[in-house]
Fold each of these.
Amino acid sequence: MAGATSTFPASHRFETRSATRDHGLVRALLLALGLGFFALFLILPLVVVFAEALRKGWETYWAALTEPDALSAIRLTLLAAAIAVPLNLVFGVSAAWAIAKYQFRGKALLTTLIDLPFSVSPVIAGLIYVLVFGAQGWFGPLLEGYDVRIIFAVPGIVLATIFVTFPFIARELIPLMEAQGSEEEEAALVLGASGFQTFWRVTLPNIKWGLLYGVILCNARAMGEFGAVSVVSGHIRGMTNTMPLHVEILYNEYQFAAAFAVASLLALLALFTLAVKSFIEWKSAQKSDPGIRPEESLT
Amino acid sequence: MTATASRRVLPGFGLTLGFTILYLSLVVLIPLSAVFLKTATLSPEQIWNQISAPRAVASYRLTFGASLLAAMVNAVFGLILAWILVRYSFPGKKLVDALIDLPFALPTAVAGIALAAIYAKNGWIGQFLEPLGIRIAFTPAGILVALIFIGLPFVVRTVQPVLQDLDAEFEEAAASLGATRWQSVTRVVLPAILPALTTGFALAFARAVGEYGSVIFIAGNMPLVSEITPLIIITKLEQYDYAGATAIAAVMLLISFALLLVINLLQAWSARRGRREA
Amino acid sequence: MSIRVENIDKRFGTFTALNDVTLDFRTGELTALLGPSGCGKTTLLRIIAGLETADAGRILIAGEETSDKPVRERHVGFVFQHYALFRHMSVFENVAFGLRVKPRRERPGEAEIRRRVMELLDLVQLAWLAERMPAQLSGGQRQRIALARALAVEPQVLLLDEPFGALDAKVRKELRSWLRQLHETLHITSIFVTHDQEEALELADRVVVMNRGRIEQAGPPQAVYEHPANAFVHGFLGASNILRGTIRDGLFHAEGASLPARNIHQSGGEAVAYLRPHELAIARRPDPAGIPAEIRRILAFGALARIELITLAGRVPLEVELPRHDLAGLALNPGETVHLVPQGVNLFPSAEAGTLPKPVLAKAG
């Protein structure tokens, strides 16, 4: 969901020109307001997570992470992400190829529909699968006949995860591939490359950073999703609990240190995600075309 | 001219578009349609009774009211943050810039318990507010705090690039024409970033309306007082009241779609404005 | 290899890009497709390459129908306007690409690829850049690498889309003569698209002037320049002075002068004369074929001097070009009245003048 904003090195140009330089007091006030708000709303919660997690010492922390239910929650979270992310990756690349490289009717509608899961409340994302696969749902009785469980079981969790992370990779790639145009692909085809060779050798290397960016964001959301998964999970300890659901259970049982311990793992994941994201932004800002070099004479 | 040319010479159109539509239908469109199809099996009276129940109506008021307020707070502070990130240099700026996206990356449940720990009456900040008679956790104010947290990056990240691309020459022109600094900011800069700011506001609002994870830990969830609409859906589901849950979900979905439409229009406005001022 | 384009039609929505275009390109010739933007020249080039499909008509390369052949099997070399170098590959890998993607049984070995690539880089005189990335090259260098890459697959025909469009004036001139030399060496049937008439006239064996999806005229540069088929071609191929007048008794009457009305199949009525600025002689004495005009400005820089005048009769602005030392001999002054005697007049029916893109006085391009 984050805009792919690159680094902003150029505050300099505003600070050195008299017409765009703010009065010292204004500057101090805005900095104080902005950074104060930032510290209160973003930094403090982050600090609290780690502080509360370690409040009862490392031993309790470690024990909370290694007890069987926590481990099984970690395993399930990894499993759900390991299925959802690759599927959405294939989808994202395919959708971006179709949308960015061709003109066709209904393209704008398709792009909007791909974004749809972002505007649906996570709770509703869970609900729709209950309506389709639940005991009273469309396929409920049929599935029950074959003894297949989707809702209140792992498949439901995976489905809900796929839904909420559905647009991430596609929406990173579509604008990127649109901006890059099709000339390089056309050049590859004229030179005799097949469709697959063109994609693999020309398109993919050009979109790799955007792709990684999308994967990272998709993964963070997949591992952290709470609302949608909560609806379809059934909260069976050691069976259908993901990490965020495990945090909820521990918290509701007043095992605060344990809840924050598991939460701190998720917070680390978030920090890791942001670090990779910043790295990619830095990398792509660096790699961006430095423009045509000055002409050197022939010969 | 060739830009609009049929680019079908590139292979893979049928395959990729076909897969895209199939996957979109299976994962998103067909399951979503279940909400409306299920709602359609209820009589109009049943639907009306569900969606106009006092608890439901109180939850709409709370959800939309808190979301609106949170989006307004975010519009103000998001603008300030975007401004200082673009216009000023200060130590640690890169770190601040990177951490603005924290609410996108931090699981909502983690944010929820952290905020509850901060604002509970014995919490990090709550303990100082309690003697003053101010309670945040387990009241509608707590909901507001959670919604501010999750909505902040939307405003910063939509305003920041526009502010970045806004050439200093506009303000220099205004200054050369005799405008004060205040006039050149309010009459030149703000109108230029208004579409982006409105878009960011709408995105933050839309996100807040559907939010669940970060809110329930800090809301207290008291019927008629601090119970948000998504929670009503869950409660009804847990009571196996599928019809009730679905009817309310349908209302929320329709509102989400309307918001999506508004946001698309705002973004088109934003893009147009960007081109004109480029 | 010869190329034949037969009855090609192409529309984009309601816009007709090509309207029943038929053309022959002879083996070994370098042909320029010349016209204003939107005239369909790039579309035609892309249809020949297979990057675009025609709505109707056929393409024959070496007598063989290729309309349905996918682009990768056509063996054409295509140089894109913005070069389309693969930005993540070195110069060497860019040139080697066409060899590396060949089916396994046709693919040359690594040593052979290296030899062929270096040979091509030598040909474009850029072997020393082999390990650079495209972003590290100048525009002219990118252009030559794009050409080397296109030649690597030994194409039967070479197609170049605005090959010098993105370059600055000095490099453009240099590359132009270099490309001509290269063509003399390789003799591959080549077509290039341009909107610059000077480029087309200087470089090509044959010029095809296009306008609004149709071919206005095709022929050797000299012939097209000296005997433009219509007002559009005249206007597009260089600066023109335009005079409106009437034809009577075998003479064209305009602006107080009577000019011989040759080369027009019209015995009376309105007509338009197109006069090149260097084909107007300046005389002090009145002349029946001289147009009385007042000198407005004299611009004398470089080898050619430009004189701006305005006719006495109809206040029509005119421009004359003459060698600078001729100007010195005439000792002209602004405000003076002189008589302009046309050395060559191209007369066209007045209806045709309406198809001109713009009343050209300044040099196009």
Note: Chain A has 14 helices and no strands.
Amino acid sequence: MIEIKGLSHSFGTKEVLKNIDLTIPDGTVMGLVGINGAGKSTLLRLISGVYDAKGHVLYDGKSPNEEETRKDIFFLPDDPYYTTATTPNKLFDFYKTFYPDCDRATFDTLISKYQLDPKKNVRNFSKGMRRQVFIALALAVKPKYLLLDEAFDGLDPLSRKIFKDAIITLVEEENTTVLISSHSLRELEDFCDRFVLIDNNVVKSHGDIAEHVARLCKFELAFTEEVKQADFAGLPIVSLDIKSRFVTIVLEGDKEKMRERLSALSPAVMDEMPLDFEETFIHDVESGRGYENA
Amino acid sequence: MLNANRYFKHQLKAYMRPMIIILAIVLLIGSGVCSINQDSARDLHYSHERGEYVSADHKYYSDGGVRMTAKDLECYKIHDLMLGYPVIIMMIMCAVAPGWMFSIFKKKRNLDCFYSLPISRRTLGMLQYGLGLIAVYLPFLLTYAQALLTNMSGGYFGNLGHKYILYHFLISIAAGFVIYTLFAFVFNLANSSGDGYIFMIAYQLVPVFLLGSVESTVRAYDRLTNPGVYTYYSFVDEGHACSYTYFGELLSDLCVKAERKYPEKYLDRSLADPEVWTFLVIWIIVGVLALYGLYRVFGEKKAEQTEEMSETVFGYKTLIPLCAVAGIISGFGDDFYYGLMYFVAAVIGYTVYRRGVKYKKSDGIVLALLFAFNIMMSIVNYTMR
């Protein structure tokens, strides 16, 4: 289990993260989301021990600064290190020196699935191919804690599928705890159990993705006459878009109850629209910036 | 510890290829140096009367107005030991190795990897330091052996001052340790490789400036207390404050002693000077302190500072004003414009430090103080004339 208590970090006078509290149970796949510059990468660097944490980060009660703890952690940054003359095989050897249990078979399988030449210079690979090499390495290490920054960046849909399948297998077989930051929220929704949203330097929301999405409902309404914002007063509005007689509204609360309350306004047409994690994310982030009801 | 061993072996293997290329080049050049110098081996004759060597042609003739006889001369077969070449190679490697070994820690993306690996930063840094020592000593040892073997095969070894070869060798090892460790320390104080190289150069020059300014102050005081009497006051050899010039001169003198087998009573002045040996002790202490500093830096350096401006107190912050003040002081006897030169150098220094003309308020205050100090020194200088 990863426990984060009172974690703060500043770059000079600029505060990036403020008093972050978070618990990630073992075997969880947690998505770390937030807008650009929210502090996702900084949080991952603090959790992995790259940055010195002000506050507490504990892996089963142990600090990531201890060498023993780090054996269980693998951090894959958004732009990983490699030397100019390195190949996938050489990278494997490099990581094998630190993670002796690094599994050659898993690495070879993934490299083969990605159709990469393990003897070719990594510098000559495209961004996505390099990402594939490091994903293969991360999965071959089979760490207890896997921290991935911008994990899907540069990957094509097929590679994403291979990656997601491999993560699921890893979690099932090794009970690995995965913390993964990405802007591909639809990908995260596919295989993450939980999420944490960082916004304005703090944890804005976290929890089960499905529950988080289910707490909101979206409707499209058509009225016979023009409507105004005041007509919807008293409703738990997350967002409201009025275009003359046509309204798109996102409400927080039980779907059926919201339907009943909207029906009371006598719309000519009322359709419930599907809402996904990405849309809830947008609403969550916008609400903190006063964009709601815009 | 197991990870440290594995990492060291892995990195040793990784550095092997460039190291082999370096070794091949230095040995190839070394063989050229050996063959050229071997051809220049000649008999020389030492004149006790003159205290120096004279060529064989002047054996029985007057030379420079001094008549010499066979009795005055001792004949030595002298030969260039070629020990200067390994020292030059080592000195070059001392400057190259810090950038080679530690520039991987000067990029944020690299630290994301290295600082999250199951190995402590301190261990990681010290292992890289160890690899750097190998890069410094290996070419030196091989070219040293090459030079000695060439001498032995040429039949000159018996004529050499063996004691001085041993001194030369041991002091060379000390020089490699001191210079490389000092460079490694100051390079790692910096947040970028560029700043690291600037610090390396600064730490060779600034102590010379400081000693120069002390000497200028002493001399000025002398002029004030004894007006009209000019005495040249040499406080200490400024060259000793630069590790390159200090060890370069000392090793060169020892090499001459080893090559020419002087009689003990004709010790070179520099080798007989207690100041020279005092500085050897000082430099070794500096080397040990630099190693301790390096150990501390590896443990305490923050990853987020990498690629940022080098704000360490041992860096630009101190070096620029120190260097400018020392430079202005050393200008005693010169005019305002001499000091102005150091002021301009300080402005350039701050521009490099801030990576542009983005000076901070503190920089402006320091520059204003330096300008005022220069004016004050000019007035003092004018009144002393």
Note: Chain B touches chain A at residues 3, 6-7, 9-10, 14, 104, 107, 109-120, 302-304 (CB under 8 Å).
Amino acid sequence: MAKIALRGLTKRFAAFTALNGIDLAIEPGEFVGLLGPSGCGKTTTLNIVAGFEEPTSGEVLLDGRSLRGVPASQRGMGIVFQSYALFPHLTVAENVAFGLEMRKIAKPARQQKVKEALDLVRLGHLADRYPRQLSGGQQQRVALARALAIEPALLLLDEPLSNLDAKLREEMQVEIRAIQRRVGTTTIMVTHDQAEALATCDRIAVMDAGRIVQLADPLTLYDAPTSHFAASFVGRSSQLKARIASVEGGRCSILIDGIAATVPGAAQPSLPAGSAVVIALRPEKVRLVPPKDGFLHGRLASRVFQGSSWLFSVETAIGAVLSSEPHRGAPAFNEGDHVGLNWRPEDAALIADAHHG
Amino acid sequence: MAEASRSRVPLLLSLPALLFFAALLVTPLVMIAVLSFQSFDLATGATGGATLSNFADTLGDPYYHTIFLRTVGIALATTVLCVLIGAPEAYFLSRMRAPWRSIFLIVTLSPLLISVVVRTLGWALLFGRNGVINNVASGLGLTSAPIPMLYTIQGVVIALVHVAVPFMIISVWAALQRLDPKVVRAAQSLGAGETTIFIRIILPQIVPGILSGSLIVFALAASAFATPAIIGGRQLKVVATATYDEFLGTLNWPLGAAIAIVLLIVNATIMLTYNRLLERRYARFAQ
């Protein structure tokens, strides 16, 4: 049975629908991310699960039991807020102990649990400090320890890392993931950062305008986005409007709009010949080749060195296409060169395009 | 050269305000201080010279002891009541929804829009033997004899609380605005109920606001003139009314000045001590 299930969650404000029928079942121990731009409904979803807001319709089931009418203070969920929301007048240890005190756990057991929680986030040595004496990353860990100390039914992370600088953020992603694996608490994380979601989650629900547009593991989401929105929100991609020309065996030929170029792709049962599609190409899967070997041709408009890789932008007849390759010395092509672009047929993600016919 | 002239700019910019302050506050204060050391003659008034006799009279006379103790007592009672009423009220206001919050905040602060004399006369109408409160109470058969309120310490304290409570609310309100609202949710998620959240999480964080509010209220109450003069009447003197009587009744300006100076020192000492004690206690986590 799912640890937590959202059934048809809908939240309407006067003139605005924040959530429009969210269905999501999360297995015990799973780490699920709600990913989307601001205003997509991810935070509203989290607030409803936490009990801070009531849904207009639909319900949340925890271990099969409805949480309707159960106040936030009775739900037993551990929450880590973007602003950390530590109690500034209490020490680190007192912050972590607060939830245990509310559960009337006797002092010796409480102290033991506080110590365990602080050791888990490697902050045992700072137990007697006040929050304002800690760095952002340390405060974040105290917030995590405080949420985990109560052995929550569910761990809810609300943009937990967006106040940290880039380098610390990457470290904390790894650490949060490791801690979650160790304690095994079912976790929901809200984030607008696709890299963060890809790095930490078992599954990602991409949200747009109050709906889940795709629910998939990070690899599938990245390699096979099912919508234009998912393809552009997660990672970088070049998108070309096209039409399936013919399907033969496992492969198909795709006619790109605007130029009479035909490129190969991997056939999908849902896309018969004649379907309008968008081809989403990840830069690292597109190779820069001499013109005669390319499916598409164009002029190398820019060549940007990014440290570990090079990013190329090729100006074709139907717009810019991005390509990137790992840095192994100066690339073979210079800006202004006429180049070709090719890719493995299975690397072209085909998305059904309802909007053009 | 440019550096030197630039460093003078802040001084020059604040000079008008400084002069204004010096002319209107420091000068009269110094004159009162000088006056308090002069001797007094019934026939000629203040006669100059330097004497401590006015302070000896003020500090040595049991009559003034009673007045000072009454003043401090009234100020303390007013402060305590303002804390008990103002702090929860500011918290409730801060938890209200959008239109109601500003509406009720304005209602709460509205006493400040009315002249203190008019407001206090209003209380006198309510408090009198045949005032609204006593008429209603006896009309309902709740009381057999009128409750004395006018010319009592309780009456003065009630009227002073009404005058001073908006200052407590503003001060606590400012402290509440600095609070991270997510802290309340964090406490909820950890299992705390409303009362626990207020006592364990909110209250300790708004203590600096309550502290500064208490200082304002205490200072206002201890130096209040109109309210004790109207509600307290001629019998129930406080320091401010006693000073007034010395200046304008017996025309003993030096004694009046000495009483005023002693009140200033008592007031300043109590406030500074209180401030230091509580700031030391809360400095460790305050921003």
Note: The helical segments of chain A are 42-50, 92-102, 107-120, 136-149, 166-183, 194-200, 218-223, 228-233.
